[in-house]
Amino acid sequence: MSSNTLYDIQVKNIRGEEISLEQYQGKALLIVNTASKCGFTNQYEGLEKIYKENKEQGFEVLAFPCNQFGAQEPGTEDQIAQFCELTYQTSFPLFSKVDVNGDNAHPLFTYLKKQAPGLLGTEGIKWNFTKFLVDKKGQVVKRYAPQDTPQKIAEDLKKFL
C-alpha cells in the first residue's frame, strides 16, 4: 500500500486499536522508533519533556516500539506501555510494535524513509530512536540520528510550531 500523504496511513495504538494519522493533521510531529532495553532508552525522559513543553502549541510525539535492533524491545504491548508509564511517566501516544526496515516495514516508516533519507541517501533506519520531524502540513522536514537528543530537536521544533 503506498500512501500519498502521511495522513492516509493507518496505525495501531498500543492497545491494538486501528487509528488514522489523519487525527494528527495540523500538528507538528516527532515520530520515533523506540526500545525499552537500549542505550538510548533514557531519551524517553527528554521526549516527554519536549512533549509537555510544546503540546499546547500543537505538538505530538508518536512512539513506535521496534524489536529489529539487537532485540531490545522484546516485551508485549502491555509490558512496553507499563515500562514507559512507570519508568518515564510518558503521556505521549505509544503505538503497537512495528518493523521499520525490511519486507515487513510498516507503511509509515516506508513513507518517512522515502521523504527523509539518511546519510548519503540511504533509507534504512540504523538503530532505535531514529526520529522524524514532521511540520503541521504533514511534510517530513528532518531526520535525526539515534544520538540526537530530544533537547537538540527542541531547538528545531520551535520553527514549526
What does this 3D model show about the protein?
The chain is built from four helices and six strands. With 161 residues, it is α+β, with helices and mostly antiparallel strands. It has one domain: 3-Layer(aba) Sandwich (Glutaredoxin). The strands form two sheets. The chain has a four-stranded mixed sheet with strand order 4-3-5-6, covered by helices on one side. The radius of gyration is 14 Å and the shape is globular. The termini are far apart.
Subunit organisation of the chains: single chain
Task: Note the total helix count.
Answer: 4
Number of strands: 6
Order of helices and strands: EEEHEHHEEH
Low-confidence stretches: none
Q: Strand pairing plus helix content: what structural class?
A: alpha+beta
Strand order of the largest sheet: 4-3-5-6
Notable traits:
Glutaredoxin; alpha+beta; 161 residues; globular; four-stranded mixed beta sheet; 4 helices; 18% strand; 25% helix; single chain
Please outline the helices and strands:
Blueprint: E1 10-12, E2 18-20, E3 28-34, H1 43-54, E4 59-65, H2 77-88, H3 107-115, E5 131-134, E6 140-144, H4 150-157
Parallel strand pairs: 3-4
Antiparallel strand pairs: 1-2, 3-5, 5-6
Concise structural overview:
It is built from 4 helices and 6 strands; from the N terminus they run βββαβααββα. With 161 residues, it is of the alpha+beta class. The chain has a single domain, classed as 3-Layer(aba) Sandwich (Glutaredoxin).
